[in-house]
Amino acid sequence: MSFKKEQLLPGENLIAQVHQHSIILIGPILLNIVSAGVFIALSSFVRWWFVAFDLVPLAYLAWEIVVRQRREYIVTDRRVVKQDGIFSITSFDASLDKINNVFHEQTLFGRLFKYGTVGFETASEQGTTVFPFVPDPVRFKNQIVQQREMYKSHLPAPDVGQNIPKLLEELASLRDRNIISHSEFEGKKQSLLSKI
User: Fold this and answer.
1) How far is 173 from 76, CA to CA, in rounded Å?
2) Which CATH number fits the domain 1-20+72-155, given the four candidates 1.10.357.10, 2.30.29.30, 3.40.50.720, 3.30.70.2330?
3) What is the full DSSP assignment across 113-181?
4) Exposed end of the chain (fewer CB within 10 Å): N or C?
């Protein structure tokens, strides 16, 4: 099942949806070329049933094309999704506000053919999530970073009232180290206490 708009949450917008770079099909394509070459070279020596052996690499290529089509990397304005599978589907979602660091890696070969790895770290048990063979990885990474920053900027501000005791301790520490004066401390203290 391909990621569909019905999978979006209410009010969620799809930003990017990519499949792995077509470079992952190079192995099955080369296998088919070699297999066809062997078949042609030996065609005068083998029987017609040998054609069945030549269909195996072709079936393998078809399978890999379907697998590539069903492996999707999605960025919305709320989360990043990695979805994979043909008969059974696995899906991993990471909320944009939980993503700490976003990175990309490209080998020389990857730079030549415009693909690479994009990954991000979260504070969850999952840790690091990696998306291999992403086409135009810098653009995909930037889409994640841009959506993360936009998402975080629209989050409601934390309740200052819950942090007042901690803020008062920090203010007292600044006063005790003579970084702020006693009168500055009292002014800030009264300002914080008025927010309770």
Assistant:
1) 43
2) 2.30.29.30
3) HTEEEEEEEESSTT-EEEEEEEESHHHHHHHHHHHHHHHHHTSPPP-HHHHHHHHHHHHHHHHHTTSS-
4) C
Assess contact for 191 and 168: CB atoms under 8 A.
Answer: no
Q: Which residue type is seen at 139?
A: R
Which tokens go with 116? 């690479």
For residue 157, name the pLDDT band (cuts at 50, 70, 90). Answer: low
Q: Round to whole Å and give the CA distance between 88 and 84.
A: 8
Q: Which residues of 17-27 are buried (b: 16+ CB within 10 A; e: fewer)?
A: ebbbbeebeee
**Structure confidence at residue 69 as a pLDDT band (50, 70, 90):** very high
Report pLDDT for 109.
Answer: 94
Tens-digit pLDDT profile for residues 92-110? 888 888 888 999 999 999 9
Burial class for 113, CB neighbours closer than 10 Å (0-12, 13-18, 19+): middle
